[in-house]
Amino acid sequence: MKIVISPGAGVAGGPVYFAGYLNVGAFMLSLHRIYPGSLLFRGLAGLVLLVQASVLWAQTPVTLQLKWSHGFQFAGYYAAQEKGYYRAAGLDVRVIEATPKTDVPEEVLAGRADFGVGTSSLLLARKAGQPVVVLAAIFQHSPIVLLTRRDSVVRSLPDLVGKNVMIERGSDELLAYLRREHVPVDGLNQVEHSFDINDLAEGRVDAMSAYSSVEPYHLERVGVAYRMFTPRSGGVDFYGDNLFTTENQLRQRPELVRAFREASLKGWRYAMDHPEEVAALIQTRYAPDQSLDFLLFEAREMISLVQPDLVEIGYMSPARWQQIADVYGDMGMLPRQFDFTGFLFADDGKADLEGLRIYLGAALAAIVLVAGVAAYIHRINRRLLVSVAESRRAAEDLHASERKYRLLTESMKDVAWIADADSLRFTYVSPSIEWQRGYTPSELVGTAIDLTVQPQERAALRNLVRQRARAFRADPDNQQFYTDIFEQPCKDGSTVWTEVVSTYSVNLRSGGLELQGVTRDITERRATQERIAYLAEHDTLTGLPNRALVTDRLSQALASARREGHGVALLYIDLDRFKPVNDTHGHAVGDLLLREAAQRMRDCVRESDTVGRFGGDEFVVLLPRVEVSDDALRVAEKIRSALASPFLVSGLRLEVSSSIGVALYPEDGRSESSLLLGADRAMYEAKRSGRDQVSLYRR
């Protein structure tokens, strides 16, 4: 018998990973021969089985160091933890959030964490001799951007020179972006990053680095319009939130690394497929201070960054990393053609997507080559009367290659198609069109491409296709790929939302111009995005607009009032004696009362008015058009009376009342914040005066 239990390299110390074998059968047979039927044999056998079970059942402690505080940004790891994916892989994972001063690579290299989440600057760590290995790229596009106030003097990047700018550590793509836009970094007045969005909102700095999935939410919530500069617009496109470990970890515990990576990516797939569930989980278990609205906003913004429906989560391209390295080379931070061998994790047990891409490219090249050979042989046949057998073999090879290419295109779930750019009619449509829209290829070949969109879009589509064709003919070397979104009709009368990627090419046989494209069904993705967008603007309990949506509508109402010269009223409503209902009867009954109260308030206003919930038992009513203060007071009194009537909830007769504050534009304030503040103060005045009252704010 041999048992080898190697000590772990993790933070917990002690035996953490089973790395040997136990030949139980041979050992037990030897014992039986020496001590047949004895108590000693039975005791030793039981001990062996106990040791084996304890080894197999042990969970390996693993520590993951995040690069920021808890949020949907790390949703996949929480999902892997809570759905049991780590546990099923034999891992006991501890997730540690970061602070602005946390150096994530240092935490992993020092052994205080086994895995980390880092930026693409891991390339610089590799160049500095730090043996980091990237396991997966979670964000296909980095979320790092530069934000400015829309009302500031900074309208373009060159305007930043001489201005106060906060750029956080590790924002290398921003520096490369500034360099490409010819903005001297040393010409900026760089201020230490406070990670406080109020510094930008209140004008203490002119610009700050931020995440496109985080800070815009907070600016929108306080009503500050902003301008966003993204490095991608300047051709700087880095990976983001890369999962990494060390060469030592990979060398000593390769199976553990593989198990952690696979469980994490499984968690990420679940999180992106179930954003509402995972957002609620994060708020409950990891980030109780974050609102569900914010977490859902973050989830929605991450879809375009992670691209889960286009790219396998975690996928990395060595060519893309080489492009990132070249950007660092342009900045003088890496040598040209930097060799990052060993920097990228390669799982030999799984298909290599990059290899597949190369293989497909080689296959297509082979088709072109075989076609050329066939044409050459055909010419030789005619001129020199070469043997018919050799020509037949070349034709058969070409036919076999064409069959492979057709099998590839026709087995895709997406629809591949070709159309004549002059007649705008299809010349080829792949069989997957029947799965996507119910038509057979023969029903569509020869039909006009504009019939694939809604009638109101057909003229615009024809003009767009012809305009792009003219641009290609004017400069055929500058081939462009276009991405468009269309609602396309199906044979059964329904519609599907599709994403169409297309380009132009000259048919080498006919010399005619072709429009070639691939159409993908994005109906489910669009529905998910719309659902997330709805939840980001509405209260999940009552279905009422939340603070963000009410504030946006208030802003629109004020803009209209300034143009047309009418008044606006804002009512701030707080339920009296609601807390005793929750304390006595429980939150379930309290929630039912809140839903009924919300409905009563809806019944008291016009369709053009907005009833919103700010949280707890606080509601707001926006009256976007009032002529005199009495109009607002009548609505407020109507609501107060409706809420004063008893509520029948779950067989209980419950009584609450309301304190209502009213603020008017322009008398009580001319901005969103001043009206909200005035209505809030008037509401507290109603409470101080005995509750169950309406109070009009007066400065």
How are the elements arranged and paired?
Elements: E1 5-7, E2 15-18, H1 24-34, H2 39-57, E3 60-65, H3 75-82, H4 85-88, E4 91-96, H5 104-109, E5 115-118, H6 122-127, E6 132-139, E7 144-149, E8 164-166, H7 172-180, E9 189-191, H8 198-201, E10 207-211, H9 215-221, E11 226-229, E12 240-246, H10 247-252, H11 254-273, H12 275-285, H13 292-306, H14 318-330, H15 353-384, H16 388-410, E13 415-420, E14 425-429, H17 433-437, H18 441-444, H19 458-474, E15 482-489, E16 495-506, E17 513-521, H20 523-537, H21 547-564, E18 567-576, H22 579-585, H23 587-603, E19 610-615, E20 618-626, H24 629-644, E21 647-649, E22 652-654, E23 657-665, H25 672-688, E24 694-696
Parallel strand pairs: 3-4, 3-5, 8-9, 8-10, 23-24
Antiparallel strand pairs: 1-2, 5-12, 6-12, 7-10, 7-11, 13-14, 13-17, 15-16, 16-17, 18-20, 18-23, 19-20, 21-22
Helix pairs in contact: 1-2, 3-11, 12-13, 13-20, 15-16, 22-23
Describe the structure.
With 699 residues, the chain is an alpha+beta fold. It has six domains: 5-58; 61-141 and 239-330, D-Maltodextrin-Binding Protein, domain 2, CATH 3.40.190.10; 144-234, D-Maltodextrin-Binding Protein, domain 2; 353-407; 412-531, PAS domain (Beta-Lactamase, 2-Layer Sandwich); 538-696, Reverse transcriptase/Diguanylate cyclase domain (Alpha-Beta Plaits), CATH 3.30.70. Helix content is 44%, strand content 20%. It contains 25 helices and 24 strands. The strands form six sheets. Strands 4-3-5-12-6 form a five-stranded mixed beta sheet. A five-stranded mixed beta sheet has the order 9-8-10-7-11, covered by helices on one side. The chain has a five-stranded antiparallel beta sheet with strand order 14-13-17-16-15. Strand 1 (5-7) and strand 2 form a beta hairpin. Helix 3 (75-82) packs across helix 11 (254-273). The longest helix has 32 residues, at 353-384. It is globular and about 105 Å long. The model is unreliable at 1-29, 31-35, 47-57 and 349-356 (pLDDT under 50). InterPro entries: DGC-Regulatory_Protein, GGDEF_dom, Nucleotide_cyclase, PAS, PAS-assoc_C, PAS-like_dom_sf, PAS_fold, Rev_trsase/Diguanyl_cyclase. It comes from Zoogloea dura.
